[in-house]
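Feature request, filed as a ticket because there's no other form

It would be nice if the structure record came with a short human-readable summary line next to the tokens. Right now we just get the raw output. Example of a typical job, pasted below so the devs can see what we mean:
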Amino acid sequence: MSEENIDDKLATELEEEMIIADDKIVELELSELEKLHLEIEDLNKKNKELENNYFKAYADAQNLSKRAKIDAENMVNRKISSILTEILPAIDNFERALEIKQEDDHIINFLKGFEMIYQQLTNALSNEGIEVIESLGLEFDPNKHQAIATIKDDNYASNIVVEEVQKGYLYKNKVIRPAMVKVNE
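Raw output as currently delivered:
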């Protein structure tokens, strides 16, 4: 074998080894790229999972805050309703006392004092959102009125409240006590 043939053979073998080495380098580079792509995919999945967990936790916190606010408001409303049911009979008694007609000056002065106290109480209730249920001359509403009797009166249409026996009260559009009324047949 001549030196040229040996050189050619060595060159060919060297070229083949270089091609194999290049292929291995390319394979290694591809496998590194694939690893990096897989790692990026994994990180993206984890990121989405963390975002979802964040949004769920945020929504839960918002719902908890709203629920706590509603529960606190309901507790206050129940307490106010409870206090009102105890105070309303006293207001009824003030109204009855104020309906008394007297000519004695001492009693008239007492009644003026009662009227001032009554006005203070009703103003305080009004300022807190307590409203009197309007009844007279209106159509009977079973959600706001409690019929205790029916009356036949030609001056009113059927199912109209003709007399209020006891005032009813609302708090934030919720009936605290229905008005006791007499209704036209």
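Something like this underneath would help us a lot:
The CA atoms of residues 48 and 103 lie 85 Å apart.
The domain at 131-185 is CATH 2.30.22.10 (Nucleotide Exchange Factor Grpe; Chain A, domain 2).
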